[in-house]
């Protein structure tokens, strides 16, 4: 992979980032490459679905990726019923109840802020 040594053209780099975005995010976090980390967050965030959001949220938390975390939480809030039916959510609920509680608490807090803002 010639992404970092400049052997790829612009379009090829974007293709590789799309293809390997999760792995590159982990590497960008570990080796502290902020521009690549932002690029990967955008690539991963652009293809979020209710079926992938739980795993991506965990990845965002592990890699300290706040933009990706925010996109995940927005999708969770918007599509919670669909997310709740996924295997990933059931796995999270059964194996990491603290993370489930954290997600539910964040959704509740966001809903409270939204409700307060609307009542003003």
UniProtKB/TrEMBL annotation:
Key word Mitochondrion present: no
UniProt xrefs under Gene3D superfamilies: Potassium Channel Kv1.1, Chain A
InterPro entries cross-referenced by the UniProt entry: BT1/2/3/4/5, SKP1/BTB/POZ_sf
Superkingdom in the source lineage: Eukaryota
Keyword S-adenosyl-L-methionine: no
Involved pathway(s): Protein modification; protein ubiquitination
Keywords, ordered alphabetically: Metal-binding
Name the UniProt record assigns to this protein: BTB domain-containing protein
Taxonomic classification: Eukaryota, Viridiplantae, Streptophyta, Embryophyta, Tracheophyta
